[in-house]
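User
New here, help please:
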Amino acid sequence: MYVRRVGKRTLEFGHQGWLLDESFIFYDKQFDSLWVQATGTCIFGRFKGEQLATVPVTHTTWGQWRTLHPDTTVLAKPKELISRYQRDSYEASYRKWGTQFGLAVFVEGAQKLYPLGILEDRPVVNDEIGGKVVLVVYHSATKTAVAFDPTVQGERLQFELEEAGENDVRIRAKDLPGVIWSGLTGRPVSGVENVPSLRQLRTSQFVLSNWPKHFPTSPVFGMP
């Protein structure tokens, strides 16, 4: 998810199905600059070389999101188009071609891909990207992966699995006993009072085979 503001301008975007290295190319309607969806980088036009800022997002099922965030405001779909969004139109293609996904985690100046297949066996990962500490949590039942900064009150914490449930992954810090966090929201759910939530990092789901096309020098977790 990208921020539409570049400098002092708020842009409006559209796309016509163009692809570059298996990534959508979209354009801004004000200047017809071309942007790569996978990286948020402008490759042609007035803003060439600029990169759109991003915001943290969670890719999950609607049922899972509603359980964790019951007060969510939802962008309504046009009634005449609702039937088109009842299922993933690309699902059959994913099965046919054996498409595999990973969680791309972005920190300042660096990024790393965490294959969901590897996270199935490692639902809590303490790691580093470009010298910056990260925590990756995976909920297998809904194939939901998120990433956080594991620094709490100035101290880097090492996390481990407490419990993987139907609706959440509970985690605990080895260095801060007695506190349990929601692994999908980063919020403390029990234990010591006044413990802050974990800061969610910028992430995106990414097709494994497309990663080296856009980030050829960036690592993939669990792979040489």
User: Anything to note?
Assistant: The chain has two domains: 5-44, 62-72+97-214.
